[in-house]
């Protein structure tokens, strides 16, 4: 080691002093975080009220466009404030540190641990569809521990694991798509516009379906949680978010097309596991096992992405708040070990108590609330701080942020009317962070900045 290298962590890039996460790896994190089980389960409930191939594909396309509107706004904020932790960083910069703390409090405690537990439980259940005698809970716990151990080995090994597992996931999905269009017997459905499609598109089921489509697209902002580990984030972050979201948009539209192409609408309507139904139509009696194995492999990369990005919120909070300082400590390989172990412990607790679904129910509104105000922060900063350097400017401003805000406001309204108790409970959990913030008041940003921060 030369004198100029002294004190430089081995996981950082020697030329930039930043982390070594490349655009392909950051894109893989976005893709892996977005593609869970939602796209494999939503169609059955959509075709009950929207029995039109064109309208269904348009529904998923609209969902992808709304996600892209969010990508453009988050890219501007990420390029302006290149620090890991997502909404914790953005809301604190755009409004007040207390607002950022509320978002960070939810994300650092259960915001990622609950989806990790849900994905792990889904892994266990789909593994049982392949080998029926396998126990779901031990499998779920085992896969979370395995992925966590990889994360603890450091950024370089995590990058390799994430890239390989995500590429495998995409390859398996593409293979399923090819088989569906080549092997399956085509069903009498058209994807061209029909006279009755306008009625479907302006209907209430289409609007409600968009809510659940947007849940399937959640995760498009994943790379914002690791900005501090990216090379040249002002350029890399927008590219990773855009590429990842476009890849998922294409895959989602294609998956729904192959489901409808290969399987009768009447067989799909009302079914939760539409992927298995379509798999049986494509591959015969082994279809369920083939699809189960495909989803299992895919969920590993999803869990890996969430176990990577989630602890970075607690890590960054630890850099700012003295009482949480232990979570900011990194190993020589760049892993925030204590933050990873904390998220692992919470995920295991949720798995043991089977409480992850209830937790997800009551944090959904809070997460939407934070995303809404993050995108609104782009507009706010354009007005209040027009002279701030903006290495990337939101494409289509102000229309793209407004589209995202309108759809997100509708989703929050839907949750408030359909699940008022859970939504208000989620807000109470977020507001409880104010008590912690009041007790352990955060120092000014400049004073609290860590050596890893720009």
From TrEMBL:
Bilayer disposition of the protein: Multi-pass membrane protein
Principal localisation: membrane
InterPro entries the UniProt entry points to: AA/rel_permease1, AminoAcid_Transporter
Membrane spanning residue stretches: 21-45, 57-77, 98-124, 136-155, 167-186, 206-228, 240-261, 281-309, 335-356, 362-383, 395-415, 421-440
Subcellular location: Membrane
Alphabetized Pfam families for the sequence: AA_permease_2
Keywords: Membrane, Transmembrane, Transmembrane helix
Protein name as catalogued: APC family permease
Source lineage: Bacteria, Pseudomonadati, Pseudomonadota, Alphaproteobacteria, Hyphomicrobiales
């Amino acid at each position: 080691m030369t004198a100029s290298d002294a004190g430089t962590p081995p996981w950082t890039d020697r030329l930039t002093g930043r982390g070594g996460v490349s655009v392909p790896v950051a894109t893989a994190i976005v893709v892996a975080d977005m593609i869970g089980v939602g796209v494999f389960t939503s169609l059955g409930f959509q075709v009950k009220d929207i029995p039109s191939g064109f309208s269904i594909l348009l529904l998923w396309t609209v969902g992808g466009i709304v996600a892209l509107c969010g990508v453009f706004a988050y890219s501007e904020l990420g390029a302006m404030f290149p620090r890991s932790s997502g909404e914790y960083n953005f809301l604190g910069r755009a409004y007040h540190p207390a607002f950022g703390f509320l978002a960070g409090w939810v994300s650092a405690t259960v915001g990622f641990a609950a989806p990790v537990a849900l994905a792990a439980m889904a892994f266990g259940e789909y593994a049982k569809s392949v080998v029926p005698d396998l126990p779901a809970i031990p499998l779920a716990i085992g896969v979370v521990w395995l992925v966590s151990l990889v994360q603890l080995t450091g950024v370089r090994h995590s990058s390799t694991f994430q890239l390989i597992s995500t590429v495998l996931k995409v390859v398996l999905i593409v293979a399923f798509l090819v088989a569906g269009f080549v092997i399956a017997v085509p069903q009498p459905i058209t994807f061209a516009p029909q006279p009755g499609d306008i009625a479907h598109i302006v209907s209430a089921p289409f609007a409600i379906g968009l809510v659940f489509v947007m849940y399937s697209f959640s995760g498009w902002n994943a790379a914002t949680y690791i900005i501090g580990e990216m090379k040249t984030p002002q350029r890399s972050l927008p590219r990773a978010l855009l590429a990842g979201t476009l890849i998922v948009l294409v895959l989602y539209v294609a998956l729904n097309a192959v489901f409808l192409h290969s399987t009768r609408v009447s067989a799909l309507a009302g079914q939760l596991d539409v992927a298995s139904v379509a798999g049986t139509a494509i591959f015969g009696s082994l279809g369920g096992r083939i699809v189960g194995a495909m989803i299992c492999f895919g969920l590993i990369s999803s869990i890996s992405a969430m176990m990577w990005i989630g602890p970075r919120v607690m890590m960054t909070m630890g850099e700012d708040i003295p009482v949480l300082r232990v979570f900011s400590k990194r190993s020589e390989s760049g892993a925030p070990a204590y933050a990873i172990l904390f998220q692992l412990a919470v995920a295991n607790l949720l798995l043991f108590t089977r409480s992850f679904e209830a937790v997800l129910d009551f944090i959904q509104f809070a997460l939407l609330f934070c995303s809404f105000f993050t995108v609104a922060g782009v507009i706010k900063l354009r007005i209040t701080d027009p002279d701030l350097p903006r290495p990337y400017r939101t494409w289509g401003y102000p229309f793209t942020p407004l589209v995202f805000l309108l759809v997100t406001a509708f989703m929050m309204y839907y949750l408030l009317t359909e699940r008022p108790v859970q939504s208000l409970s989620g807000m109470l959990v977020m507001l409880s962070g104010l008590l912690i913030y009041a007790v352990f008041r955060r120092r000014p940003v400049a004073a609290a900045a860590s050596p890893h921060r720009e």
